[in-house]
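Students often ask why we bother encoding 3D structure as a string. The short answer is that it lets us treat folding as translation between two languages. Here is a chain of 216 residues written in the first language.
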Amino acid sequence: SGTCTSNSRELTNMAIQLYNSKDGGKTWEPLSMVNTNAEGKFNAVWVSLTSGTFLIKAESTATTEYNSATATVNLAIEPTDNTSNGGTVFTVTSNSTISQLIFNSNTTELSFTATGTTGTTGYVSVNIPKTLINDLTDLKVYLDGNELTYISAQDQDTWFITFTYSHSTHTITMNFANNNQTQNTPDMMWIIAIAIAIIGLIAAVTIFAVQKKKHR
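And here it is in the second language, the structure alphabet:
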């Protein structure tokens, strides 16, 4: 899901083509063509047959009034190793490159590496099913072992957690039960095997269109 705007103004009935890439952007596979609504919003559902790390791209074509515009995000998706919650999936959407996504169901910790160009701002949006985590009261987010401020929201089935940081290469740990996370010791995370299973996901992107100038 996402929005299409020009100078902070929502654009209605704009055609948005969505793509995904499994090879870092070398090739793209069309996902869906959707139109923005009266609020400039669009959404589509993609059911993936595999887990892993993908690129998701939204593209609007040029019109008589607006130039073309694209937005691309990194999407990491992994199932949990808890068979009692079969099909439960974490998704992480970011403008950083996400790797080493691991969820430890024994300690209820999610960890991953986020990499981006130094001097720019990175963001992460994490979607967590409530069937796996039913309360965020004790949630702590750590960036390289230092506690990080986050914003949380929810709907009937899912928690949405977002936070920002300055880009480089970071280890991010999300501790849902506050199980004695020690600052400045990100290497204490234990890596576990994750079974391959996926039921679906919604990829989030925001796309901005730029209005053409009639005169220089």
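Translate back mentally: The chain has two domains: 1-72+195-216, 81-193. Keep this in mind for the problem set.
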